[in-house]
Amino acid sequence: MVKQEETQNNCVYNIYIASDLAFDICSGQGAVGVVARNIEGKFMVTGYKRIRVRSIQEAELLGVEGALKLAVMKGFGKIHLEGDCQIVMKALKKKDQHLDLSWQDATIFFNILAFCLHF
Fold first, then answer.
1. 108 domain residue, yes or no
2. Which of 20, 26, 64, 77 is the most buried (most CB within 10 A)?
């Protein structure tokens, strides 16, 4: 079954890219997984990275950053980014730079905004 192409502001997304993570708050260790699918839902590329973080918010930000890095490396054009951290996803949609972030998290967030310029 072929999905209808999603549009937002007259933009057609060809690639859907999602990140998720597993994280142990006690040790600070975890992993980020990324998957990219085409409009028909077929896998294009996957990846993962082990991480060491101080907070769940930092882990979520690294997940989004990893997804965007993969999209840039693979030369994807217009992407639809999927994630389960509403705070991060809403901030990205609005390009909201006024989140209550530690300086470490703010650095990752600004890196993410820079990656978004590729799309």
1. yes
2. 64
Query: What's the CATH number where 96 sits?
Result: 3.30.420.10
How far is Cα 46 from Cα 48, in angstroms, rounded to an integer?
Answer: 7
Whether 7 shows a pLDDT value over 50: the answer reads no
Name the pTM for this structure: 0.81
**Which tens digits make up the pLDDT trace of 91-118?**
887 766 666 778 888 899 999 999 988 8
The domain of 102 spans: 7-113
- Residues contacting 73, CB < 8 A, separation 6+: none
Provide CB contacts within 8 A for 85, sequence distance 6+: 57, 60, 63, 64
Domain count along the chain: 1
Could you tell me how many residues make up the chain? 119
Q: Is residue 27 part of a domain?
A: yes
Name the CA radius of gyration of the chain, rounded. Answer: 14
